[in-house]
Design goal:
alpha/beta, Alkaline Phosphatase, subunit A, four-stranded antiparallel β-sheet, 16 helices
Length: about 550
């Protein structure tokens, strides 16, 4: 690839931003509320480690899809919890947030977790702070950011400082992964968080009593209380509201709340009853659990021999590069099937919460359903986990209902960094200039409106450190083998530039290209097709997106057009 190609492309793209495409961007930033108009409310329901095949098991989510806008090409910029959530809050790619992984690694110069999020100024860049300052009542309940925790000294727990931008703040701390035996916080009138411990009621207690302390139930109760109070206030002409409900499901547990508990613990209401078959009974939503098979997991067990990356030499010829997918295959078919069915059981409580939220909101409220990342479960012979650039990990549901939303599917590409500017625009604000994402608000009422044609991904390799939640048995522990990469997705395929050298100062670039003719990443075809114009265009876009410390916001936005 010629060195000047990427720079030329960047110049053309940025120029286009102020010419033919300039009107579209200006429309993104227009004030959508006129004199006397009520600004809308927004409820965001964010799931954790949600793989797309689970959506078909959720009856209320299916109804929401029929009623609203369903984005077929919705992705996350990095398929890892904390990096994704930081990017959602700020509308910025990880190279701008500085949140590159779940844990800090180096406490003095953190690269991830709450420590990095706070140190690098992200608290002041969030969309919810902008909404609150503009008059919105903002609320949060559920899983926040990795590393934002209560601390214990001699068995006495102290809550962290509250996070600016949330009028009402009810985080559930890390024990929430286990379903029970965790602490939550509540922002009091004194401006401090008060802690509550949620235990695991005895198995002899009725199911309703046990599930009352389940993390999804607790987050849901707080969410519904918030919605009911503020819907009435908003309808009476008071402040509009924004609420994020962030469930821990269907992420795997870290520790057992109950003896012999599931790796992916559903609410007791969705489990097989005593005397029933744990493998096939219980509530899997729209289907019986026995109907869920490994055929539902696109690419499950696919031989990874033809997925190794490819080097490109200076003269344009190619050569095989070392495979990075070298993990021992420890996930059995029976283990994968059990985990898949348990995850389906686990999302049913979220699905019921979705229905309750929709029933509680008024006609001037948007409800948004999405996830922080996907989850692979045996695809490409990788054990359970996330972090790769592939569909299983990066593609997420995105469904929106609300005022003026025209039902139907949308083909525009959307990234989770687009949510922040979209929420700002819906609130009648001009999206902040430092957002890397672009609002897709106009596509809610205009399904065919111009939108993004390219989506970008970036991921940074970092050896797991204590506190990394994705090295547990349920996630397979393969996060450590995924190299750093920059990738771009278009209608025609996915191009990934991996850095096979894990050193921070040097690179060893290799490529993977997938056209999705088989519906998943069947075979790396970079060697055969890298000279084709559309592939060269994707490579040039990657060069611009990943140049130096990463593209600047204006360029990042231009690159999606």
């Amino acid at each position: 690839m010629r060195r000047g190609w990427g720079g030329l492309l960047a110049a053309v793209l940025v120029a286009g931003l102020f010419s033919a495409g300039g009107a579209a961007v200006a429309e993104d930033r227009a004030d959508r509320t006129g004199p006397g108009e009520r600004r809308p409310n927004v409820v965001l329901l964010l799931m954790d480690d949600f793989s797309l095949e689970l959506l078909a098991t959720m009856p209320n989510a299916q109804q929401m899809s029929a009623d609203g806008a369903t984005y077929r090409n919705a992705f996350v910029v990095d398929s890892l919890c904390c990096t994704s959530r930081a990017s959602l809050f700020t509308g910025q790619a990880p190279h701008h947030t500085g949140v590159l992984t779940n844990t800090p690694n180096d406490p003095d110069n953190p690269i991830g977790g709450w420590e990095a999020y706070e140190k690098y100024g992200n608290v002041e860049k969030t969309f919810h702070l902008a909404l609150e300052r503009s008059g919105y009542t903002t609320g949060f309940t559920g899983k926040f950011l990795n590393g934002y925790e209560a601390t214990s000294v001699d068995g006495v727990f102290t809550p962290p400082e509250p996070v600016p931008g949330w009028t009402e703040f009810d985080p559930i701390f890390g024990g929430g992964y286990n379903g029970w035996k965790y602490r939550s916080g509540h922002l009091g009138e004194d401006g401090k968080l008060a802690l509550t411990f949620h235990g695991a009621p005895a198995l002899s207690k009725p199911i309703a009593v046990r599930d009352a302390q389940y993390a999804t139930t607790v987050a849901g109760d707080k969410a519904l209380d918030f919605v009911r109070r503020h819907e009435a206030e908003s309808a009476a002409g008071g402040a509009p509201y924004f609420l994020e409900v962030a469930t821990y499901g269907p992420h795997s547990r870290l520790n057992k709340a109950y003896e012999d508990d599931y790796q992916f613990p559903p609410a007791f209401a969705d489990r097989a009853l005593p005397g029933e078959d744990r493998d096939v009974d219980g509530n899997c939503g729209t289907k019986s659990c026995a109907e869920l098979t490994l055929d539902d997991l696109a690419g499950y067990g696919d031989d990874r021999a033809d997925n190794a990356p490819t080097y490109q030499r200076r003269d344009g010829t190619t050569a095989p590069a070392p495979a990075w997918r070298t993990n021992e295959i420890s996930l059995t078919d029976s283990g994968a099937l059990q985990r898949y069915r348990d995850r389906a059981r686990m999302v049913q409580s979220i699905d019921r919460l979705l229905a309750e939220i929709r029933a509680a909101v008024g006609e001037n409220t948007y409800v948004v359903l999405t996830a922080d990342n996907g989850f692979h479960l045996g695809q490409h012979q990788l054990n359970g986990g996330k972090g790769t650039p592939y569909d299983s990990d990066t593609r997420v549901p995105l469904i929106v209902v609300g005022p003026d939303v025209v039902p139907g599917e949308r083909d525009q590409q959307v990234s989770n960094i687009d949510l922040a500017p979209t929420f700002e625009e819906l609130a009648g604000l001009r999206p902040a200039s430092y957002r890397d994402g672009t609002s897709f608000a106009r596509t809610l009422s205009r399904p065919k409106a111009r939108g993004a044609r390219y989506t970008y991904f970036e991921h940074t390799y970092a050896k797991s450190q204590p506190g990394e939640v994705d090295t547990d048995e349920g996630s397979g522990g393969t996060i450590d083998i995924i190299p750093s990469y920059v990738a771009v997705r278009s209608e025609r395929g996915l191009l990934v530039r991996f850095d096979l050298d894990n050193d921070w100062t040097t690179t060893d670039h290799a490529w993977e290209l997938y056209t999705y003719e088989d519906g998943f990443e069947k075979r790396n075809v970079y060697a055969e097709r890298h000279r084709e114009p559309w592939v060269r265009d994707l490579a040039a876009r990657i060069a611009v997106f990943g140049a130096g410390e990463g593209c600047r916001p204006l360029v990042c936005r231009a690159l999606t057009r």
